[in-house]
# Entry
Amino acid sequence: MTDKCFFDPKGLIKDAFAIDGIAAPECRSIFLDWALGLPPSRDVREDVTALIAHYAGQAPASHPMLETLHAALEDAGPPRRRGGRSGRQ
# Structure
């Protein structure tokens, strides 16, 4: 892997690619740490796209961190009510 990139200043994503045998849950946790460390003014979707472009050629397409990054670009479904009377039915 190359050195840290602008979109990964702490090297969290880079380190995830370097961990041998890392699984999807660990990648999601690392991704969350990375995302929480971003300044509020940053566009997360733009940064994730840049991370994919930066690391895609350096890791297999089936790497769990690449899968996590791709999943981060998917739109979340509409929120559903989960509590109260409707949640118990």
Summary: The chain has a mean pLDDT of 87. Residues 78 and 84 are 18 Å apart (CA to CA). The helical segments are 12-18, 24-36, 44-55, 64-73, 84-88. The longest helix spans residues 24-36.
